[in-house]
Amino acid sequence: MAQQRGVNSLQFNQDQSCFCCAMETGVRIYNVEPLMEKGHLDHEQIGSVASCSMLHRSNLLALVGGGINPKFSEISVLVWDDARESRDAKEKLVLEFTFTKPVLAVRMRQDKIIIVLKNRIYVYSFPNNPVKLFEFDTRDNPKGLCDLCPSLDKQLLVFPGHKCGSLQLVDLSNTKPGTSSAPFTINAHQSEIACVALNQPGSVAASASRKGTLIRLFDTTTRDKLVELRRGTDPATLYWYTLIIQP
């Protein structure tokens, strides 16, 4: 039987210079400008993959198994070090995070990895000797919505709030590990959140609801609404967007 070549998910790296495709046939990594394939991991190495996350342009990839013929579990995040010289795929798997429920999304920055489940978000130190720093309960988040600021100056995390249509903002640099911290809340929409994103400096957060008619931008310091962009009046499903706004 011929292998299916479907794309299960796509994710850009922190500065949008590369993106990786998690596929039924493995993982493919592309450079954006110029557009060209940068590397790939075959099905024989890693099986089918539900999601893949890159750390900038480094050799580290976070993989979550899924699809038709996975080699890895959907409840685990495996960190692949492509710089390791070995023909054995197991030798390139340098870290593993395992949970009791499926992993829906992974975000990384130089010093932290964020792992999103349906009702909880975990924050670990990364990549050397990872330690759990925080965990946050969330409302049902079946799409694993969250974004993490890659800036060295701001460690901001954003995800759907407990109230329908709200966002929660957490400055990880001002939160002590092992303690619970009340995130700042932005009442962004009247219906459920469908997309959320931060710009690279972490100064602006953008959100869209499931209606798909409005995208709203908020100042992450004052939590004031900066602008409202109307896509149209007909409902539409928004899957992803990115912010390139500078402070």
TrEMBL record:
Keywords (A to Z) from UniProt:
Repeat, WD repeat
- What domain of life does the native source organism fall in? Eukaryota
Which parts pass through the membrane? Answer: none
What InterPro entries does the annotation carry? PROPPIN, WD40/YVTN_repeat-like_dom_sf, WD40_repeat_dom_sf
State the SUPFAM superfamilies in the record: WD40 repeat-like
Which family is annotated? Belongs to the WD repeat PROPPIN family.
**Protein name, as recorded:** WD repeat domain phosphoinositide-interacting protein 4
What is the species listed in this Swiss-Prot or TrEMBL entry?
Eleginops maclovinus
